Amino acid sequence: MTFRHASLDTGAGIGFGLMTELAERVRSLSVSRWGVEKSLEMVGASPAYVELQRKLAKVARYREPVLITGEAGVGKEQLAEAIYLLSESHGRPYISVNCPQYQEGNLTVSELFGHVKGSFTGAMGDHRGAFEEADGGIIFLDEIGDLPANAQAMLLRALSTGEFRPLGANRARRIDVRVISATNRPLNQLVMTNQFRYDLFSRLARFQLDVPPLRDRADDWLLLVDHSLARLGAKYGVRKQMSAASLRLLETYPWPGNVRQLISVVTTGYAMADGETIEPGDFATVLDRDATAPLAPTPDSPDALYHRLVRRGEPFWEIVYEAFMDRNLNRAQVREVIRRGLDEADRNYRNVLQLFGMPATDYQRFMDFLRHHDLKP
User: Fold this and answer.
1) Does residue 3 carry a pLDDT above 70?
2) CB neighbour class for 120 (10 Å; exposed up to 12, middle 13-18, buried from 19)
3) According to the model, what pLDDT value does residue 36 have?
4) Among residues 365, 292, 308, which one has the least CA distance to residue 340?
5) In a 3-state reduction of DSSP, which class is residue 19?
6) Residue range 39-62, pLDDT digits in tens
7) How far apart are CA 143 and CA 204, in angstroms?
8) Cα–Cα distance, 273 to 283 (Å, whole number)
9) Cβ 113 vs Cβ 167: under 8 Å
10) How confident is the model at residue 290 (pLDDT cuts 50, 70, 90)?
């Protein structure tokens, strides 16, 4: 895959680094489809990001479902749009649905598949769902891991048969829609705990694209900084650049919020800088705030594990014990989960059992596990 120096097509002629020929093609198609303001720019030259683009170009040619996985902020929706632009569906409908937006089951099903008047409380008229709107094209289901059980069942039927039935309708309707879905949650673990259907997971992941986090993309952060400053300069008519000190600070930052966070930081620095040079003081407070903010936990973080145990009622012996024994969790992670349980359970291990949803008969097994592996906080 070859690279070319690219520039923003705004008349300003501002260069912003290296783009692959594929990325230039995607950008050109997006400008034709949505205009310069919504141009899709896949900036990056790291081996991990170039390999991702290579896979994307291949899967775009087919009509099979695609599952895009990766941390929050890595650009999963951008990749879905790129697949659409490179596919035979380009020019046909592209519909995006944010699955967590509809927490109640009927609302999710209605958003996806529509309903007829009177099918549920508040259904004052007929409604065309996203699948019907996307017929002939592509539908993007963001955060598919949050899809309710009844919507999962209807989605599986739509994928299996090409048919769906709106809520309250007497007849099924046929559709020809390619499904692209995305998630930052571990669907395989949700399958193991019966929160996500295995048969649906298998169909959604005919092709799977794993998006690397920004920290694993070598010097792509620098290309993204240059790109963001070029766009801001073209938009506001003032060219600005990072000082050497600013670049040193950005280089050492871990970017837990990935590309989305980097663009936000650069935009803040651009706005706060009085002159044409952006110094650390122009954006450092944003980095400090982001470093202490309650970021979305990784699937194996103590925060995420504790939430799954206490709020979702998932089984301790599966998500903690088995993960630890398989060396997917370390001792420090398990100790932190137990410590949090003790803090909430008045320092009483029997109360921890109840908090974690274990029966009282598991007490000796639980204590033996903690003692044998030195897991007491």
Assistant:
1) no
2) middle
3) 86
4) 308
5) strand
6) 999 999 999 999 999 999 999 999
7) 13
8) 9
9) yes
10) low
Contact assessment for residue 111 and residue 102, using Cβ atoms and an 8 Å cutoff: yes
Contacts of 371 by beta carbon, 8 Å cutoff, 6+ apart: none
Give the integer Cα–Cα distance in Å for 96 and 153.
20
Q: What CA–CA distance (Å, rounded) separates 326 from 311?
A: 24
Angle between helices 244-252 and 258-272 (to 10 degrees): 160
Mean pLDDT of 184-188: 85
Cα distance between residue 202 and residue 181, in whole Å: 12
Identity of residue 318:
E
pTM, to two decimals: 0.72
What is the per-residue pLDDT for 15?
A: 39
Query: Hey, what are 201's tokens?
Result: 């997971």
Q: What is the pLDDT of residues 306-357, one digit of tens each?
A: 888 887 788 899 888 888 877 677 787 888 899 989 988 888 999 999 889 8
Alpha carbon of 159 to those of 85, 169, 283: distances in Å?
Answer: 22, 19, 46
β-pair partners for 163 = 174
Using CA atoms, how far apart are residues 364 and 370, in angstroms rounded to an integer?
Answer: 10
25 residue type, one letter: R
**Residue for token pair 């909430």:** 344
Task: Compute and round to an integer the Cα radius of gyration of the chain.
Answer: 24
19 close to 199: Cβ distance less than 8 angstroms:
no
Write phi, then psi, for 218 (nearest 5 degrees): 50, -125
